[in-house]
Structures are given as structure tokens and as C-alpha cells.
Amino acid sequence: MKQKHRTLLLVFFVAIILFIITIVILRINTKKYSPADVAAISTNGLEVTINYCRPYKKGRLIFGPQEKGALQPFGQYWRLGANEATTLEINRDVLLAGKPLKQGLYSIYAVPGPDTWQIGVNKEAKRWGYAEPDYDQDVLRVTVPVTYGEPLTEQFTITLQPTNKGALMLLDWDLAHVSVPIEVMETK
């Protein structure tokens, strides 16, 4: 009887170890196709850091109607990259597209559309995979305009450009171009 329990215990531990190794290998391999990157800026006392992964277009239709086979159909959740959830870290209270956001670490996502994108900011920063966030943990949602047209961006790119009041977060992939203002909140 003891031998049977030992064998079952050994099989259980081997299965757990194989599962962990498989997860590690999958995470490493997915980064080959959508490498990790960081967009960061430090300007006028504001520090913004965005960690994300950069998928490629590879000849696919990226944004558009689901019935046309778009990789990211209009009106559906997108994690703003690949692999882990994209994170936004800010060291000061800001206005994100005109709405207040406290300093901290957040995950950010988008719901692309033909004329506007909804950008969501969520308290759950450390998430892996495609799974949608718990929307009850959203601290902010804003709607921003999108333009579609040249230039074509082969690999998804987030850029931070300085402005007089803070920074612009630029989201570019395929023919989509989105600009999200991040402005330091005035202290009184």
C-alpha cells in the first residue's frame, strides 16, 4: 500500500514539474514572435513607463470587421500587444485623455473601432494571456479618435512623445494611428 502511494506521489510531482517547464517554454517561445519592449519618458517631473509585447502584421488584416477576418475585430477587447497584459506606470496623478488617473501601476487595453478606440485602465496589472480583465477593476475608460491610413506600421509600436503638459502616448499598428494625451494634473 505504501509503495502505491509513493508511486502516485511521484507521478503527481513529475506532472507538476512538466507542467511548469511547459509554461516556461511557451512564454519564452511566444516572445520570439512578439518581443517585449518598453516605451518610457521622463519629462518635467513626469515619468511614464509602458511595458508591452510587439506582434507583427505578417500580411494579415489587423483591424476591421470580424466577417472580413480581422485579427482584431472592431468592438472587441485587445490587450494592446501580445503575451502579458500591457502595463502603464506613472509617478504622478495625470489626466489621461482628459480624465483623472492616480499615480500607480495599471494594465491598459483597447476596444478598437472604425472611428474611435476605447482605452481602458485596470487595477490588475500582472496578467498573462488573452483573457479579458475583470472590468469591475477598471479605474478609467476613455474614448479617443483613430485614423486609418499611411504609413503602414508592420510591428505594433507604442511611443511616448513629450508635450508642454506631459506626453502623448502614440499607438501604431498596420494602418491604425491613435494618440492619447497624458497630462500632469495641476497642483493647487
Strand pairing plus helix content: what structural class?
alpha+beta
Number of helices, counting only DSSP H or I runs of 4 residues or more: 1
Number of strands: 11
Mass-distribution shape:
globular
Radius of gyration equals 20 Å
- How far the N terminus sits from the C terminus, by CA atoms, comes to 74 Å
- What is the percentage of strand-forming residues? over 45%
Strand order of the largest sheet: 1-2-5-8-9-10-11-6-7
* Helicity range: 10-25%
Biggest pleated-sheet summary: 9 strands, antiparallel
Mean pLDDT: 90
Number of domains: 2
Gist?
This protein is an alpha+beta fold.
Give a written overview of the molecule.
The structure is a single chain. By secondary structure, this protein is an alpha+beta fold. It folds into 2 domains: 1-33; 36-184, no CATH class. It has one helix at 2-33; strands at residues 36-43, 46-53, 63-64, 72-73, 86-90, 94-96, 99-101, 104-111, 116-122, 138-162, 166-184. The strands form 2 sheets. The protein has a 9-stranded antiparallel sheet with strand order 1-2-5-8-9-10-11-6-7, with no helix packed on it. The chain has a two-stranded parallel ribbon with strand order 3-4. The chain is globular. The model has no long low-confidence stretch (mean pLDDT 90).
What tags apply to this protein structure?
two-stranded parallel ribbon; 1 helix; 48% strand; 9-stranded antiparallel β-sheet; 2 domains; alpha+beta; 188 residues; globular
Provide the fold topology.
Blueprint: H1 2-33, E1 36-43, E2 46-53, E3 63-64, E4 72-73, E5 86-90, E6 94-96, E7 99-101, E8 104-111, E9 116-122, E10 138-162, E11 166-184
Parallel strand pairs: 3-4
Antiparallel strand pairs: 1-2, 2-5, 5-8, 6-7, 6-11, 8-9, 9-10, 10-11
